[in-house]
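Structure tokens please, single chain.
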Amino acid sequence: MLRVFDRETSIRTFWILFVLTLLTIIGMQITGAPLITDAAPAGIVTFELIGTFSGSQNIIQSWEGEPMTWAGINMGLDFLFLALYAVTIALACRLIADKYSNQILKDVGTWLALGIVFAALLDIIENIALIKLLLGSQNEFLPVLAKWAAIPKFILVLLSLLYVIGGLYPALRKPSS
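Here you go.
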């Protein structure tokens, strides 16, 4: 595989991206707090997964006033977040894959690194659909599109994170000489 950085540079880059990703998560938690309502008990995640036009409209109505501003800020942060998490997790998958001697585990890491980029593309589709709804679109397909972009996105992120977490021990131990 083509190497842009040496391993040490890749590791330093990972930690910088990891911290930026965590800071963005904190920002999204702060901006997402006002979005937790009876209609959206999980805030923006409820909106992502509602899947029906009437449900999305109930959520939007519950966000009337100041929460709608927070929804817009949160959606904007999500575009930053999707770029950060995609690159951070993809880099982590590649770093861990490189530590395995087993070719299957290496290949899984490579495929998951590509999969997380696909997850980010799904996240963009989801975000655009949700923003259109927030801006008043009456297209009943948008909540369905958002839901079916969000579900595989969440699955790919989960699988990638499980690979990374599962690979931490082999990745962190010193290579035997």
